[in-house]
Amino acid sequence: MIKVDLHSHSTVSDGLMTPRELVRHAAAQGVQVLALTDHDDVAGIGEARDEAAQAGITLIAGTEISVTWRNRTLHIVGLRIDPEYPVLQQGLARIRESRFTRAQRIADELSKVGILGSLEGAQQHTTEGIISRTHFARFLIAHGHAKDLKAVFKRYLVKGKPGYVQHTWASLEEALTWILGAGGIPVIAHPGRYDLGKTLTGDLLSEFKQLGGVGVEVVCGSHHPDQYGQYAQLAQQFGLRASRGSDYHGPGHSYMDMGRLPDLPSQCEPVWRDWEEVLNLAA
Ligand code: AMP
Ligand code: MN
Ligand code: MN
Ligand code: MN
Question: Angle formed by the axes of helices 86-112 and 172-181, to 10°?
Answer without folding.
Answer: 140
